[in-house]
Amino acid sequence: xxxxxxxxxxxxxxxxxxxxxxxxxxxxxxxxxxxxxxxxxxxxxxxxxxxxxxxxxxxxxxxxxxxxxxxxxxxxxxxxxxxxxxxxxxxxxxxxxxxxxxxxxxxxxxxxxxxxxxxxxxxxxxxxxxxxxxxxxxxxxxxxxxxxxxxxxxxxxxxxxxxxxxxxxxxxxxxxxxxxxxxxxxxxxxxxxxxxxxxxxxxxxxxxxxxxxxxxxxxxxxxxxxxxxxxxxxxxxxxxxxxxxxxxxxxxxxxxxxxxxxxxxxxxxxxxxxxxxxxxxxxxxxxxxxxxxxxxxxxxxxxxxxxxxxxxxxxxxxxxxxxxxxxxxxxxxxxxxxxxxxxxxxxxxxxxxxxxxxxxxxxxxxxxxxxxxxxxxxxxxxxxxxxxxxxxxxxxxxxx
Length: 400
Known about the structure:
By secondary structure, the protein is α/β, with parallel strands linked by helices. It has helices spanning about 45-55, 90-110, 120-140, 160-165, 215-235, 265-275, 300-310, 325-330, 335-350, 385-400; strands at about 20-25, 80-90, 140-150, 150-155, 175-180, 185-190, 195-200, 240-245, 255-260, 275-285, 290-295, 320, 360-365, 375-380. Strands 1, 2, 3, 7, 8, 9, 10, 11, 12, 13 and 14 form an eleven-stranded mixed β-sheet that branches.
């Protein structure tokens, strides 16, 4: 008999409609963590973080469309862990990615055999425990969704020197931290209002993925493009002149434009010259396991866009103007709107990749005096948290 996996939609009845279970890790003064500054109450730009939190709250709205139930495959063993990382410090999120990628690499490696009879039993027991831990952390595919706070710049290591030689880093008026990282691509900017999606996927998995980096890059771009197109149609609810398209290989990313058929001649010339980029992507692979990902500018405000446009030459593309969906449509998106976008994106991922189950996790950094990191887990249909998920949390907290 096939096991049925029930996943209520994010919109209306949230996929995190549940009680929360949390664990914490404390830091002492010798290992102090640095977090972003506290956001003022009047600053309502952190919709994404509020959306992430709402995934653990009950919602009595019965509107369950769209739904991702239809894409779950019950005949295979291929779990997806959705990690909603609230208000993530970029450095901490980078460490989490590296940890999960490393765990997946270890899971793929064959365990060594110990032929020493004296220590064989102890070593075998230890190896068995490590094998279980490696499987619990290394087996799932991971999708981290976050927005970064405080704001920062990141530069791909292969283009780090070039970025300064070609003056693509113009100024740093906010004295933001700069990260030299392993992904491809030039300099970019991260801040609140930008949805960043990091897939930690093993392309050698024979279930739903291809061992082909070009294919995977194109799939991420297409998932994002489809989600943006569907989201815009649902939000505006009318046919309009606004479109999205993929950049060429030398200008990888997602761009937006207006359909020129209904524009005047003067406007046509301006719109053709300007390439307005709304999403940037850079990936890194080790043993066919990905990290880093795509950043989609949804609710970036004018101040953050100014950093994109005047502080740097984003991605080293001098003929490109960075923009956001909020700026282009002149709409301040609500939590419900962003909830819808995340649902649409997940639909695209899940219908391409055959997952047995989806486990939903909220990871939260805290600014209180105790400096805790909390991991919240979702109950299953019987009101219990999956035991493997509890073990996962326990071992990840040891790292964090």
